[in-house]
Every structure is written in C-alpha cells, then in structure tokens.
Write a structure and sequence with these properties.
This protein is an alpha+beta fold. It is 28% helix and 23% strand. Strands 1, 2, 28, 29, 30, 31, 32 and 33 form an 8-stranded antiparallel sheet that branches. The protein has a 5-stranded mixed sheet with strand order 15-19-18-17-16, with no helix packed on it.
C-alpha cells in the first residue's frame, strides 16, 4: 500500500568543507529532526523543509583515539544522541533547545516593493527550532561495543564482542560518574553473557541447543521490540536468534533464546512492532520472516521474500539492509550488488527497482547504478532516506550515473495504512505528505447505467434502445458508483492548502465519504475538509481552535458529519468529535463524546460507531441525526478485549457487522440489521467476537480465529443481501486473497428453519483462497472487481551526467475480476449450487462471459499440461456449469481461440465435436460465435468441411443482414487454398488424457516381418508381399495405374495427390514441365470456381432482395461486401430488376424505410366522392378530345434536359422554331381549385403551386408551357398559403441522400423501373423527365408502353384514398402525356410503314383498342403525318450514342421479341449504347 512517485530527490547533507560521505542517518522518535553522521562530523537537519540546524566536527585527536563514527541513536525525548564508533566506543552528545527564541529562520522582505511578499502563503510558518550540539562524554567498556539499541525511554542495550548484553541508563552515561574505574564497575554490574542462557530450536523441545554459541561469536546486530518482549539478534557467525526476556531487567535467569530454524547465513534483522514479526536478511538474497506464537512464545515461519526466481542467481548478492516503515505496513530491502524492493507486511511485492527503466546503457542483471547501504524512514513514512555507496566502477564505466551520497525517495500510501475504516469505501484514496490522490468517476471511459447485460440468444428480454428526456434524468440520478470506479483510471491530485499545511504538515489521516464528493484531512493538529463539487477547502476560522486538538485513532464521514477521535490539548481529555460539513468549522457546531483513554481505532457500520481505546475497551455507540448541525449519541455496550491481544496497539483494525458464524444459533430477538459481531485484526489474526444468544452479551473469551497473516479485510455495508455481499474478504500478502462466504443450501432446504433442515451437520460457511496479481485497495462487491495500484516508471533523459537520468515513478490504477476464482473453488469442492447462485447474481455484469472464459481457460491449461494422471478431472464439471448459461458456445470458442492448438483435442473431447457445436450456434442464431468456430474447423477438419460450413454461414449471415460478418466470411473463403481442400485432417477428437498419441513411424517398425520375428511364424493359406503397394486395396491399385479425371469437385485433392505421384515417377525431361503447367491450370481453375461460388451466393441474395424491393439492404450489401451493383443490375434488367407493379414497390419501400403509409386511413364513401370528382376533372385535361393539347417540339433543350414547366406553355426554343399551341385547355376554369378534405394535403398543394408547380426553382426548369391565357391546372390560386414545402416532407435528409445514391446506381445500370420508383419516392419530377426523354430517344416502343402503362396505373391509385403522392402525380401528368404522344406517333408511323411494305396491318404490338383506357389520364393521341415532331426519320436519325449514362438494350430486346420484323431490329441495334444525360 506504499507507492513511489516522482523522481528520487538528491540531498546534499554534507556541510561546506566536508569531503567524507554520510555513514548513517537516524530520525528522532517524532520524525521531525534528522541526524546524519560522517567519519568525523555530525549534523542535525529539520525534516520539512530540509534545513541544517546544528553541526559538530570532531577533532583529529578524538578520531585517532576512539575511531570514526559508525552508528547513531536518538534518545526518545530527542535530548541526547549516542554515536557508536568503529572502535567500539560510545560518544554521547547533548542537545540544547532554545524555546524562548522564534527560530533559526528570519524572513525579511527586500526593500524593493515589487519583490515583497504580499500573501501570507509565501512565508514559511513552520517554526524551525534553534538548538546547539555539545559533546558530553565517551563511554568505553572492557570489551568493544559491537551494536547498540534503545529499549525504553531511559535505557540503552549494548552488545560487546565478548557475547555480553549490557543494559544501561541514559542518565548513567555521564562524564561525572563514568571514569576509568567506573567503566569496569558498570560493566560488571549489568553484564549478561549470552553463553549462559538456554537456546532452543523450538519451544516444545526443552533441550539446550548443541552446539552452543561459539567462543568467538558475538552479537553483530540487535533490535528490540516491547510488543514481542525480546530482541532479534544476528551473531557474528551469521546465525540468527530471538532473545526473550521476561521483563526489562534482562536478568540471566529470566532470559532464554530461540535459534531461528533454517537460517544459517543471516546478515541483518528488523522487527515489526505492530504485527510482531521478525525479518532476517540472508546471504542468498532472501528475507525470512517469522511470527511469534502466542501459545508457546516461540518462532513460527511466516513467509519468504525472494526475487531469485526472476533474476540471475547471485546477481543480487547478500541482503545488506532492511527496514520496516513506521506503521509496519511495508518493508524496504536492498542488496549488496544494488537494487531496492518494497514488500507488504506479509510478502506482497509492491515495487522493485530491478524493473525500473535506467535506459539502454545499463544491464541491471550485471550492474545496478542504484546501490544503497543504509535506509531511514522519515515523517509518517512519506520519505525514505537512502545512503548510496561509493561507486568503484566510476572510472571504468563511462555511463556511470553520479548518484549522490543521499537520495530521498517520495512515497504516497493508502489511507487504510493509518485509517483502516476507509476499507468500507468504494474509492481509491491515497495520501502523500501534502497531497491527496483520488480515483473517482469524473472522467470516464464508459458508464454502465445499471442496464442488464443481454446474452446473444436471449431474445425474450427487450433491449432499451433509447431514453426519453425524463427517463435519462432519472437514470443519471441512479448511476452505479462502483461501475464508474471500475472504469475510471484518472487521478485527481488535490493539494493541501498552504495555510493549513504550513503549520500542520504532514497529513496523518484522510477520509472520503461514500459518494466521493467530500474529503477530510487531519495533520499535526486540527482538521480541514474539501468539497469535490465546489473545489474549495474549508478550514477553522479560529486558528487557536485548530491548534487545540490532535486527531488520533481515525477519521471518517457519516451522513454529512466528520467523526474523529482526538485529544484536546486545552482540556487534557480524550474525545470523539463530530463536525457538520455544511456549516463552518467551529467548536460551536461540534458534538463531543468523552472517552476514558486515547482512541486507537474507529469504524462505522451503518448508524453504529465502534471505538477502541488504549485501555483495551471496545465501545459501541448508536448515532442519530437530529438536524443538519447536531446528533445524539447513545452507548450500546462495551467489551474488554485485553484478553485477546498483547497490547491494544497490536490491534490493526476492527469493525462491527451483522455477519455471523452460523455454528451458533441466531437469536430470534436480534434483528439482522443490528451489529452483533465484532471482527478484530490482532497482529494479522482475524478474530470474531459474537454475542451470546443466551444472555445477549458479547464476551471476548468467545472469540474464534478465522484466519492468520491478514493485512486488511473488507466487509460490505449494503442493505440488500446478495451472495457476494454477505462475505468477509481477507488479504494475506503472498498467501493471496481469501473470502469467507456462506454455503447456500438447495432450494428445497431453504424453506425449512435452521433446526429442521436436512443435513444440518454440514458447514454453513467456507474459506476460499486464490492469488491476486495486484495489491487490493478497494473491493467492489456488486461488480466482483478488485481495484489496486501499481508503480510504473519512465525515463525522461538519457544523459548520464544528470540526476534526471533516474527513472520517474508513476501511478497506474489496476483492476482484476475475481469471480472465476471463487467459482472454480466452489465447483472443485462439489458446491455447484452455491457457485450457480453466485454466478446467477452476477449475470447482469458486462464482463460475466469473460469471467466464464477465464474459468475455463485456467482449468484447461492446468489439466491439459499436467504430466500426472488426473482421475477426478475438473474440466467436465466446469463445462457442465458453463452450459447452464446462454454464453456456453461463446465461452468455448473464445477460450479455444486464445489457447494453443495442442490443447484443443482435450477441450473438445469433453465439450463435443466442433462441427456439432457449430450446428448448435446456427440453431441458436449465434452467427458471430459460429464464425469463430470456423477457425477451429479449419485446423481440425479438412478444408472442404470448413468451406462448406463457411458457405452455409455466409448465406445465413446475408439473410440476417450481418454485413461485417459476411465480409469476413468472404475473406475467409477466398483465403482457403484450393490445393488443401481435401487436406488429411482427422475429424475424430482424441482425448490425450485417456488415449496417448500414437508414436511416429520412425520409432516403430511397421513391417510385417517384425511380427513374425517376435510372435513367431503365423500360418496362412497363402503368402503375400509386404511392400506398400501390395497392401493397397484393388481400387487404389487401379487408380495408381490410371489417373482418370475427377468426376466432381470433392475429388480434387485426391487427384492432386495422384498427379504429384505421377510427376515424381516421370523422368527429368520436358514431361515434368507439362504436368506442372497442367497443375497450374487446374489451380487457376479451382480459384475461379471458388470466386464464382462466392459471386453466385451474393448474386442470389441480391436477387432475393431486389424481388422483395429491399433496396436499402441491397445498398448496404454493395457497400460492405464490395459487390459491383451496377454491373449486376445491368444483367438483371429484364429479370429481377423489371417491375410490373409500381404501387407494390412503393408500399414495400415505405415499409422498409419505416415511413408512414402511402395510403392513409380509409375514408368514408362521402369523403371519397370529392377525390373521384378531382380525378375526373384532371382526366378531362388530357383526354382524347383535346388532340392538340400540346405541340411538342424537337428542340434539344426539351429532349435532353428532361425539365418541363407546369406554368408556361411557350419557351424561347419553341417560339424560335415557329411552333405554338393552337388549342386551349378548357376543362378547368381559371381560379378553379380542386377540393381536398385533408388540410395537410391542401397546404401541400398550395406550397407546391407556389414553389414547385411553376418549376421556377433549381429542381425544375421550363421546357414547354401552356398558353398565357389558358388556365393551368397545376398553377392554382393559392396566393394566401404560407405553408412551406418541408411541412409535407416524406424522407429525412440523411435518408434522401441514400435514396439519391441508389437512384444514380439504377440509372447507370439502365434499370428504368426502379429508377422511376425511386424518383417518385424522392418526388423528383426532373429525374423522371430525364428518364422518359432517354427512353423516347432509345426508340424502345415496348418498354415505353410498359412504363407508360405502369405510370398510368399509379395515378388513379393515388386518387383512391388520401395518398401522399397525389400532388406529385398531378405534377407528372405532362411527362406521362409526353410519353403517350411518342407511343401514339410511333405506333401510327410503324403501322403505315408496314402497310406500305408488306401490306400487313399487324405490327406485332399491342393494339390501341386493347390498351386499358379506363385508368388513363393522358390517353394515346394519333398524330398525323404532317406533324414534324414525331417523324420516324427524325427519330431514327438522332444520334443517341454520345450520352453519359447507358440505358442498355433492354427496350430493343423487348421490341425484337414483340415485332420480329427486320425494320425494328435495325432500329433497336442502333440503340445499344444510348446514354442518359
């Protein structure tokens, strides 16, 4: 839970003029003063900021007499210093404080006003004390002193090279008392020779260890801890021991020792006071950690810290230094050959400099530039002082990084290290000395708004495609916080305000509320809190109130209140205070709870507050919120826990919960919401203290131990019960994660009460363990995710001369899903029902299929790669479990594709054949999963099988509009090598665990003579040859003699094999090249067959889409699959692209595009009468009675542009040609309006008459007009209308762009039917005019008649009911009339020409009398021969081969089929390349 940040800081602790390096650094008890010694000097610095305070240099005479400085030790009250020299002499220094003065810093502003500090934040408020350093005396004993340690506030423990331990008082080390004779008397009075005390290998064997301590052995390293009641010791012969004293007098009769088992090469040692652990560094680069047994008091091996498995053996060297952090949460280790590593309490690796990036110039396996010899933790563990060695390779290595004597490594740590109650929160909160790092959901990659995950084949649950405005607001209010945190990887760095940090540095406690919107911090004194919403800090208005109390024991949030344990400096009392966050920080609004002793730990369960005090009493308080500013507190009960711990300070954390061990019967009078269980972490052991159901009193003597080696634990405070929330989560460092979860009984047993259940003797809970790849900081119970943090490094410069060449440390948030770990453990223990219940509660998670995949993958690799036989394989049970969920097929194929092919036989021997699984995918419509199975089939089956299945899947994918999948399948089919169609792959899956693979031919001689040699001659009726050819069947012999052509596609591979045999038997001449060319031709033929097969499938599906008028799907198919739509449509002009019913096509397009129906709701008979009247009036305008309604002119403008005017009859072109209109339209009088019962339709016609009916805009250009004085049926009197054209729009803008693109494709492919339908859908009269003009120029009479008839049938359909196309069809009548005029003129010309030549009146076309004229609006009008417009010579002489878009020869083909005369054939042959403008 400690993580490095930033660059290591380079410190210069040498005073001016000093050349010697720093030998040792030691901080005082409160970590405020830092003492550093060199060979001949001692200096004292202030911790923050690092400022030198005092300095003392020893004389040359003193150095020659007592030696150079080696080790320094502080007195606990920071009044004295003891320095051990290399000659075994102690030098005592006295420190004088000058408290009456302000300090050593005098801040004076410069005289210039522009350089003066206007803000108080620019001044250093920290009072750096002024002190003096004075040498007091030298202490020299009979034997040289080898090591020294402080054992109490007043005593020192010394070790000599005579294997003696000497306990002395700090006050006895006085120059007036200790002299030449006094030294001997002191030594004789307090000396304890370790050779005289018993040493044991373990506590159970009451025999003295043989051999004892050697004559030349002595204690070289020593560290004392009052919580373990002894010392960790290293002897000069590298034997490790644990010295135990019954009391602090250290008398020989009250002391004994334990040899540390299996440690014979110890170098250094260190003691963890809080967890009661002893760590011993060894020569083999490992660190052995031992714990104290509570029952015997001996040593018990806990864990080992080792990096030897990841480095070259011997590359690290012996462990030269290790140090526990002040809170005992981490251990820092360094080696003789360089490098550092950081470990958690029970062995989880947090950081290693061997993974740092030092650039390309360094090989860390052979040379590590970071070589450290001493460590010292600074204030609250935020900084680590590292004393670096003098580099002996400086002159040899050109890339040497000039690491200075002292480096300071900066750390941030989890708030749980000092405030364990934060384990119940769902946010990652890290604290530095003056900064906070929070990981929350402000900037997200993805948010799951509580929506349930839909499985691929779960079609019963509707998917929510969108939200309304009010629904989205409601969803935002109920965002799942845990889901947000699982996706966010960004850090919010919040700096402590300078006004608070200047006098209260560093941060000691920090807390965050459940929502993550408020933070609270407590430093040396006082309190401050921060709002994430307003981005502002709130401090005490009265600074004296801030200085009057010190937060201790914990800090937490509860319903808008800040709850903390504190000590009042003003009243000298211990309290629990509650400050509301809404009002200002002031004691006036604070709520105080008096306690008897200092608060050690706090925690909260819902509305219940649990507090542990230094007297070993646990108190439970019930909190109730009265209003926004006050609360009421009631003490529920108190429990004495001194009997379960050595000292209350050894209690790492505690909480209260309603979790119970079901071995004790639950009282009916106790509610499930009441906290009835206390869980305590005592030195890494989890103890559960439950309420006695008989007297409802909690007794600490009833505590039961659940687990050991636990660093931290988590409990859920959720109100709703779920299998994953009713659990206790434990993290044990190198032992991994543990979870204590309930065993759910089957459904038929849940209905019974506990005493009447079947099999009530079975356990109700189980402890499961599984490894983790990260250090857990937060557990999201509902999301089954563990969140943690890892260190990453980067190198910013490669300049070896710069200290920036050291790596820069970054933080990266990590997450890990643990659901599959729990499921595997439960299934392995035959607890499938509990596993199924847990998995069912997690089905809504988006990564639930991935968890099942991880479950299958881990079991598959473990069992398939196992060399030992597995009689009770877990894989069948895992597959049966996954089969209960709809993602079974997806899980198998995803696991197989991420696993080696060699493991596939074992997997599919249990799961089933891939072909059967593929068929199941098709039945369940899991097409993507089926496509994944094709890769497996390609590797396990012959290529012909995978090709057949891929073809089948391609057809289904096209039917289901899976275009991306179809594209991948096409690429897959094209990638199949035709030569490997019949590759010899076996479809039988062999389980290698049951039947091992057969040996190769090179290992076993398959000759039949071998059997005769071993088994003896076997009598046969007749002998046979043992050659390979003779063993073949008769059919295969015949095939070898002759190689007939393959009868079908499936025999391609066998034929290829025969060809290869034939080629190898031919002599080396030109015949081999002939065979090679044949094979190349056959391969190219196979490739063409493959491509043709794919194209046939695509064309068949495209034909189906076209027949069903699914044009949008056809467009998507062309876009995704690179299907050449224009060329294919050109071939389908007379087949599927031909339309006989435009009405049906329009209705189908409306249904596909999800437009409103073209025909609105049916109307009554009375309302239909006006529409019939309108249709009758419109029909009269283009009746046969008006033969000269239009005088059409052969102007180039009219024939090529296709634009027609609806308001004007005369154009400049027609006037210049001398052609005009002679007759008038008199059917509809001027200012006569058509009647429309629908107001929207009338508005639309009015808008069309004003905007488009006159064709004055860009879409319609006039090409012919009516006479000025004639009334126009399309230019009606709607001057008063203000309705715009967009109010009656059918297509949206995006959809209109797609339809126009399709229109262009159909025009290019000469598909006039669909081009006209799309133009009608777009209501584009100009496009219809162009198409009709080109059809007229193509001289395809049959096509013109068919299209004209279809357009005429469309017009009365639009008048049947309230049709949206009625106004547009009215505007198309001039175009239909134009086409009808051409048909009539051409028909009459061809009739006259035929009578002149053959005398036959039959032209092979539909006679005019057979044309259904009941629905015609503009019927055919016979134009006389004197009309120059439709002269046959003019028609034939038109050069229509220079246009831009081809219409094709479909019209010509129709004419040839209907009229076999040579004349029409000649006409049609000249129009095969007609173009569309």
């Amino acid at each position: 839970m400690y993580f490095t940040v930033g660059w290591p800081r380079v410190l210069s602790l040498n005073f001016p003029g000093e050349e010697s390096s720093i030998n040792h650094i030691c901080c005082d008890a409160v970590k405020i003063l830092v003492a550093a010694i060199g060979d001949n000097f001692i200096g004292i610095w202030y911790a923050n900021p690092i400022i030198p305070i005092a300095f003392y240099r020893r004389s040359e005479e003193s150095i020659s007499q007592v030696g150079t400085n080696k080790v320094i030790t502080w007195k606990p009250d920071s009044r004295q210093l003891a320095i051990l020299t290399n000659s075994g002499v102690i030098i005592l220094y006295h420190i004088e404080f000058y408290s009456e003065e302000s300090g050593i810093l005098t801040q004076i502003d410069p005289p210039s006003s522009s350089l003066r500090r206007d803000s108080a934040e620019l001044f250093i408020k920290e009072n750096v004390p002024k002190l003096s350093l004075r040498e007091q005396c030298n202490v020299k004993l009979d034997a040289p002193i080898t090591t020294i340690c402080c054992v109490s506030l007043t005593e020192l423990l010394l070790a000599t090279d005579q294997c003696d331990l000497i306990r002395v008082q700090w006050t006895d080390l006085n120059a007036d008392i200790v002299g030449e004779s006094g030294e001997r008397a002191l030594a004789l009075h307090s000396s304890i020779n370790l050779r005289n005390i018993p040493f044991y290998v373990n506590r159970n064997c009451h025999l003295k260890c043989i051999p004892p301590i050697g004559d030349s052995s002595y204690v070289s390293a020593l560290e004392y801890s009052p919580f373990i009641g002894g010392c960790a010791a290293i002897f000069s012969d590298q034997r490790a021991a644990f010295l135990v004293a019954m009391h602090l007098r250290f008398e020989p009769q009250n002391m004994h020792g334990f040899w540390v088992p299996d440690v014979e090469d110890a170098t250094v040692c260190c003691v963890n006071h809080k967890f009661r652990l002893l760590a011993y560094g060894r020569n083999n680069s490992d660190v052995a950690v031992y714990a104290i047994e509570d029952t015997t008091g001996g040593l018990e091996f806990s864990h080992r810290l080792s990096l030897n498995s990841s480095v070259i053996p011997g590359s690290l060297g012996p462990v030269c230094e290790l140090k526990w952090s002040p809170d005992g949460c981490v251990l820092i280790v360094t080696w003789e050959k360089g490098g550092i590593s950081l470990w958690s309490t029970f062995g989880a690796l947090l950081m290693s400099s061997l993974n740092w990036d030092f650039g390309l110039h360094f090989d860390l396996m052979h040379y590590n530039p970071l070589q450290v010899k001493r460590f010292e933790w600074s204030t609250e563990g935020y900084h680590l002082f590292m004393i670096c060695k003098k580099n002996t390779q400086e002159s040899l290595n050109v890339n040497y990084i000039p690491v200075c004597d002292v480096l300071q490594l900066n750390f941030i740590k989890s708030t749980m290290s000092m405030n364990p109650c934060m384990a119940s929160q769902s946010h990652i909160l890290l604290q530095g000395d003056d900064t906070l790092y929070i990981n929350q959901g402000d900037s997200l990659e993805k948010i799951y708004f509580g929506s349930k995950f839909t499985f691929p084949n779960n079609s019963t649950e509707p998917t929510q495609k969108g939200f309304k405005h009010n629904e989205s607001m409601e969803v935002k209010k109920s965002v799942d916080i845990s889901s947000i945190l699982s996706e966010s990887k960004l850090w919010n760095v919040i700096q402590l305000p300078l006004t608070y940090a200047a006098s209260n540095w560093p941060i000691r406690y920090s807390a965050i509320d459940a929502v993550g919107t408020h933070l609270a911090v407590a430093g040396r004194t006082g309190l401050a809190h921060y709002s994430m919403l307003t981005k502002k800090w709130k401090l005490f208005g009265n600074e004296s109130q801030e200085k009057d109390f010190v937060v201790s024991g914990g800090l937490l949030w509860w319903k808008g209140f800040i709850v903390m344990g504190c000590y009042s400096l003003l009243d000298r009392t211990d309290e629990i205070r509650c400050y509301p966050a809404e009002c200002k920080l002031d004691n006036e609004f604070g709520n105080k709870i008096k306690v008897r002793a200092p608060v050690i730990s706090l925690n909260m369960f819902r509305d219940q507050l649990i507090a542990l005090t230094a007297d070993g009493i646990v108190s439970l308080f019930e909190l109730r919120k009265n209003d926004a500013y006050s609360i009421s507190v009631c003490c529920e009960y108190e429990v004495d826990v001194k009997s379960i711990c050595i000292h209350p300070a050894c209690i790492v954390s505690l909480t209260v919960t309603n979790l119970r061990n079901d071995l004790t019967m639950k009282s009916a009078s106790i509610s499930s919401d009441v906290a009835e269980t206390i869980i305590v972490n005592v030195c890494g052991r989890i103890l559960m203290i439950q309420r006695d159901c008989r007297n409802s009193v909690i007794n600490s003597l009833m505590a039961s131990c659940l687990a050991s080696c636990v660093e931290c634990f988590w409990l859920s405070n959720a109100l709703e019960k779920s299998p994953m929330c009713d659990c206790l989560w434990l993290y044990s460092g190198s032992h991994g994660m543990r979870v204590w979860l309930p065993i759910l009984p089957p459904l038929n047993e849940q209905i019974h009460e506990a005493p009447h259940r079947i099999h009530s003797f079975m356990s109700k809970r189980i402890m499961l363990s599984f490894p983790l790849k990260l250090y857990p900081l937060v557990i999201l119970f509902d999301n089954v995710i563990v969140l943690g943090v890892e260190n990453e490094t980067t190198l910013y410069t490669s300049e070896a001369s710069s200290h920036f060449a050291l790596p820069f440390c970054l933080l990266e948030r990590k997450s890990q899903v643990y659901l599959h770990k729990i499921l595997r453990q439960l299934i392995k223990r035959n607890l499938g029902y509990s596993a199924w219940e847990i998995a069912k509660s997690c089905r809504s998670l988006p990564y639930f299929p991935h968890s099942l995949e991880l479950l299958l993958h881990e079991v598959l690799e473990e069992e398939a790669l196992s060399k030992d036989p597995i009689p009770d394989a877990l894989l069948p049970s895992i597959l049966d479990f996954i089969r209960e969920f709809p993602v079974y097929l997806q899980t198998i194929v995803q696991c197989a594709r991420k696993t080696e092919i060699a493991l596939w036989p074992y997997l599919f021997s249990v799961a089933g054949k891939p072909k059967d699984l593929f068929q199941q995918c098709l039945q369940s419509e899991e097409l993507e999963t089926a496509a994944s199975f094709l890769i497996i089939l390609q590797n396990l089956e012959p290529s012909i099988i995978s090709k057949q299945y891929a073809t089948l899947l391609l057809d289904i994918a096209l039917q289901n509009r899976k275009w991306e999948l179809a594209k991948d399948l096409i690429r897959f089919l094209k990638a199949i090598d035709p030569n490997e169609i019949d590759s010899p792959r076996s479809s039988m899956v062999v389980n290698m665990k049951i039947a091992p693979p057969s040996q190769s031919q090179s290992q076993v001689n398959q000759n039949a003579e071998v059997f005769n040699l071993i088994l003896g001659p076997i009598a046969r009726e007749r002998s046979f040859s043992t050659t390979v050819t003779s063993n073949l069947p008769k059919e295969k012999k015949d095939k070898q003699g002759s190689t007939p052509n393959p009868p079908n596609f499936n025999t391609t591979a066998s034929t290829g094999a025969v060809n290869e045999t034939t080629t190898s038997s031919l002599p080396n001449n030109g015949a081999s090249s002939v065979v090679r060319r044949k094979m190349e031709r056959s391969n190219s033929t196979k490739d063409r067959k493959e491509i043709f097969c794919i194209e046939a499938i695509l064309q068949n599906h495209a034909r189906k889409l076209l027949q069903k008028h699914k044009l949008i799907e056809l467009g998507y198919m062309s876009a995704f699959l690179d299907f050449h739509l224009v060329s294919w449509l050109s071939q389908e002009v007379d087949r599927s692209a031909r339309l006989d019913d435009y009405v049906d096509a329009l209705n189908c397009l409306h249904e596909e595009l999800k437009l409103r129906a073209a025909i609105l709701h049916p109307t009554s008979e009375e309302s239909e009468l006006p529409f019939a009247t309108d249709y009758t009036q419109l029909k009269k305008q283009f009746t046969v009675d008006n033969p000269q309604l239009f005088r059409l002119h052969p102007s180039s403008h009219t024939s090529e542009s296709g634009y027609f005017s609806l308001a004007l009859m005369d154009t400049p072109t027609s006037v210049n040609n001398g052609n005009g209109l002679q007759n008038n339209i008199t059917a509809i009088k001027e200012h006569e309006e058509l009647r429309y019962p629908i107001p929207q339709l009338a508005d639309y016609l009015k808008s069309r008459s004003n905007s488009q009916a006159s064709f004055d805009n860009s879409r319609y250009r006039p090409s012919f007009a009516l006479h000025d004085d004639l009334p126009n049926v399309y230019s009606l009197n709607f001057e008063n209308s203000s309705t715009s054209d967009t109010s009656f729009k059918i297509l949206s803008e995006k959809l209109s762009i797609k339809i126009r693109y399709l229109l262009q494709l159909f025009i290019e492919a000469n598909c006039t039917d669909y081009a006209l339908v799309l133009s009608i859908l777009l209501q584009d009269a100009a496009s219809i005019g162009r198409i009709i003009n080109v059809m007229i120029r193509s001289e395809s009479l049959t096509t013109c008649q068919r299209i004209g008839a279809a357009l005429k049938r469309l017009t009365p359909w639009s008048f049947d009911r309230e049709c949206v196309y009625r106004p547009f069809m009215i505007s198309l009548q001039p175009h239909i009339y134009h086409l009808d005029q051409y048909i009539s003129s051409t028909t009459s010309k061809l009739s006259m020409h035929h009578r002149d030549e053959d005398g036959d009146t039959s032209l092979g076309i539909l006679p005019e009398k057979k044309v259904d004229s009941s629905n015609n609006i503009a019927q055919s009008i016979h134009i006389t021969n004197d009309n120059p417009t439709w002269d046959l010579e003019n028609i034939v002489s038109e050069d229509s081969c220079n246009r831009q878009s081809s219409i094709g020869s479909c019209g010509s083909a129709n004419i040839n089929n209907n009229n076999p005369k040579r004349l029409l054939k000649d006409h049609s042959s000249r129009n095969e390349t007609c173009q569309v403008m």
